[in-house]
Fold:
Amino acid sequence: MRFRYSLLLAVVLAALSVRCAGSPAKPEGSVTVTVTTSTTTSTTTSTTSIPPLVGGGVSVSPGGSGIAAATAFTFSASPPSGGVEPYVITWKFGDGDEGAGPSASHIYPTTGTFTAVATFTDSQAKTAQASTSVAVRNVSGRWTAVFDGGVVANQAIDLVQNGAAVNATINSASTVFGLGAGSGNVSNPRNLSINVTFASAPAPPGPFATTFIGRIDDALQSWRGTATGFPGCASCTFTATRPPFVGDSGAPIR
Structure:
């Protein structure tokens, strides 16, 4: 039995001798550490100067005075400069109404002088403004119509505008036509048309109806067009004028 234990001990010692003859064992508790060295990154700070926001120019079409409830003014704004894009353009037309975009249209329902203001806003909420003014009148008042070639006697036409509608009275008491009455309307940009009936015209020619269609100039002082239906002139060219305006009321001197 003692021999058997001695032989076993010898085998174990031999095995330990063979293991130690290989690669040396690492010390107890040692670890492998990988160290990565990165290069130093420098930060460069640059300053960019942003010019102040400056509003673009504004324009309006048509030029001249407009007719209340009829003339559609188109307001246009050129792009602003400076600031930080994108830009937003909004409009205040001066009568409580507003619009948006580089171009905006507006019809003024009442007379007066109005200032339309364009506001330019950049992405940083900075603002700039530009403006233009327009005059708006009506066609109310007395117009004196003169017919080319004198084929029809001069006519005194009294107009009263209410919104886009127009009431018309023609007093031809000094002629054979008598009193005429009718109505019509104004339309964009500065058009005026009326239909008038002379119901009490004596014979000849007796009762008849006539139509005036024409365009008013940009000062709203001259109305030129064609009149149809007058006895002796199926289609006549006329020019009607009225006195200058007073102040901003839109009412001309009678």
Observations:
- The two ends are 152 Å apart (CA to CA).
- Residues 1-35 have pLDDT under 50 and may be disordered.
- The chain has one helix and 16 strands.
